[in-house]
Amino acid sequence: MQNEVPLGRVHVITGPGKGKTTSAFGLAMRAAGHDLRVCIVQFMKTGDVTGEVIAAERLKNVSVAQFGTGRFVGGSGASDDDRRSARKAMAHARKQASSGRCDLLVLDEVNVAAFFGLVSAQEVIDLLEARSEGLEVVLTGRNAPDEFIEYADYVSHIDTVKHPFDEGVSARKGVEW
Question: Can you give the pTM of this predicted structure?
């Protein structure tokens, strides 16, 4: 029999490949299957109808909260609405992190939000430092700040070797979304 090791670790899932959110939701499903309470805060996403969100919302011990404008933040930069949404996401994440209502907290796309300056790496680190004892936290998204990588206990870098999108194949319901 294995020793019970307490929760409270930090995971970073980053890199340019497909599957960072899917990996985090997989961990969330595993945790939910063991009756852990899961809170998922999605930065820069709204109205998301991905299979992960649909499935998660069917589970009694998983909550998903989305904060975004529905607009892609890219080379054109972030808008004031993007910044407001990110502030709301951080406020909600801080509340969840200190509430004691979650065993696992997923901050989906927080790495990207930090990369675009919608949140600072320091305020995310502050959230991690102030979180309830035993809260496991997952930070996802491309371009994870070095501070997150240094702080984390687990770091996974997902890369793309080959993807049908590179050949013009559109995303497929149930596989890519």
Answer: 0.92
